[in-house]
Each structure stands twice: as structure tokens, then as C-alpha cells.
Amino acid sequence: MPIKIGSRVFAPRWFTTALTLALLAVLIALGRWQLNRADQKRALFDAFAAGADTTRPLESASNRYQHVEAEGHYDPDRQILIDNMFSAGGQAGYYVITPFELTSGRWLLVNRGWIPVGESRAELPRIAVPGGRRHIRGRLDRLPQPGIHMGPPQALAPPFPLRASFPSFAGIKSVLGAGNWARNAEVVLLDRDQPGGYAREWAAPGFAPIRHVAYAVQWFGLALALSVIYVVSNLRS
User: Fold this and answer.
1) pLDDT at position 214
2) Is residue 118 situated within a structural domain?
């Protein structure tokens, strides 16, 4: 139904109205999704910051990023290199994942840090492992995950050190063959001051919350611009 506005008449067509409403719904939904992502990231960053407040024995900790300590020894013969990991400067390399047998007999994965690829991918880097009984400290975390999962998980098989892109925890447990694992962690991120590691610049993953807020503002801004265009384009003299 046409609506008179001053000397003009607002007379939108049904098709443009339906299309505009559909696009507005999508833009607003995207903006709200980004705000939800900002809340999730804020909680994640807060958890990372709070994790260092106390250090607990591994067996009594369960929260992601909780700072823990444990005793045991590394297994130097069955290490895993997680491929397609990048340093803070953007250099390609690997995360060095080393199995760690706790004094209780359970097993744990320890991320000992990042190491560069080297001159050729055909030759894997040498990854030294400290021997003997160790007292380690670090943060509980999960294994790195891809932004988009493409196809089934990669099948893992020896020889070691095994190179893989985004291996699953279940896949690693299967290829290592150890059945008794720590129940509360996939991996411990070894502290920077701990010996026997490589480059370690641990941080909560992904963009900071403010980045998602900025994206939300962009989506809502597009929704506002679309509304203005809709009104102006449907005003007739």
C-alpha cells in the first residue's frame, strides 16, 4: 500500500520488499553471530589469562588452560610433528608433540614447541628429547584444529617421528598404542622456561574479541545501508 511522505509517495514493490527483508535477516544474523563469537572469544581469553593464577597437579585439573605440573619421562622414539604450524613471524614449521609417561603409568602428550621446517621438507628436523625423570610444567589444552574440516581424519602410521597435519587425539592414541591416558587433557603446552623445548609463544587461539565486534559492526552497518537504499529507491514523486 503506497504511503505519502511529504511531496513523495513510498510505494515499494513486493519483490524488492521480500528480497530486502531476506537480506536484512541474513545481515542481522551474521552480526549477531559475530557478537556471539566475540563473547566466546572473551571467555576463552579470560580462561587463558586465569589459567596461570594457580598451578595444580595434573590429576586434579580439568579446565582448559589450567597451569599444571606432572612427573614422568619422555618417550623419544614415538614423537609426532604437527605440520602446517606457523611462528609469530609467519614462518612455516612443526609443533613437536612428545609422549610423556607419568609416574602413575598414564600417558600424556606434551607440546614442546615450534620448530622450523628447514631447507627441505624431504628431511625431517632432528628433535632431541631430554632423558631421565622429568618434572614438567605447562597448560592444559587441545590439539590444534583446522578452521574447516576437509574429509575424514588423516590415517596415521609409523615410522616415527610421524609427520601429520591436524591429527586427532584419537588418531594419535591409536598409532601410539598406549591405552592408559590422562583423563583430563589432550596435550600440555610446555612452559617457556622449561628445558627441552623449542620456540613457545602460547596464546589463546584465534582473533581477539574486538575483531569479532568490528565484524559485527560491519554487518549491522550493511543492514542499515540496505534499509536506507530500500527506502530511497522506492520513493516516487
Assistant:
1) 95
2) yes
Burial class of 77 by CB neighbour count within 10 A (0 to 12, 13 to 18, 19+): exposed
* Regions in the chain scoring below 70 on pLDDT: 1-9, 147-153, 237
Q: Is 184 exposed, middle or buried (0-12, 13-18, 19+ CB in 10 A)?
A: middle
CA dihedral 98, 99, 102, 104 (to 10 degrees): 170
> What is the domain count for the chain?
2
In this predicted structure, what is the pLDDT of residue 32? 96
- Residue type at 48 in one-letter notation: F
Cα(112)–Cα(195) distance, rounded to whole angstroms? 9
Q: Which amino acid is at 205?
A: P
User: Could you tell me if residue 114 is inside a domain?
Assistant: yes
Residues 10 and 102 in one domain: no
The β-bridge relationship of strands 134-141 and 107-116 is unpaired
- Give residue 149's pLDDT: 65
Q: Write down the pTM of the prediction.
A: 0.79
100 to each of 14, 87, 96, 166, 180, how far by Cα in Å?
A: 66, 24, 12, 20, 12
- Do residues 90 and 160 share a domain? yes
Strand ranges inside the chain, DSSP E? 3-5, 8-10, 55-57, 67-74, 80-86, 92-102, 107-116, 134-141, 162-164, 187-190, 235-236
Residues 169 and 120 in one domain: yes
- pLDDT for residue 182: 85
Q: What is the pLDDT of residue 237?
A: 65
> Range of 229's domain?
3-43+210-236
pLDDT value for 62: 80
Residue 172 is placed in which grid cell? 594419535
The answer as to whether 57 is a domain residue is: no
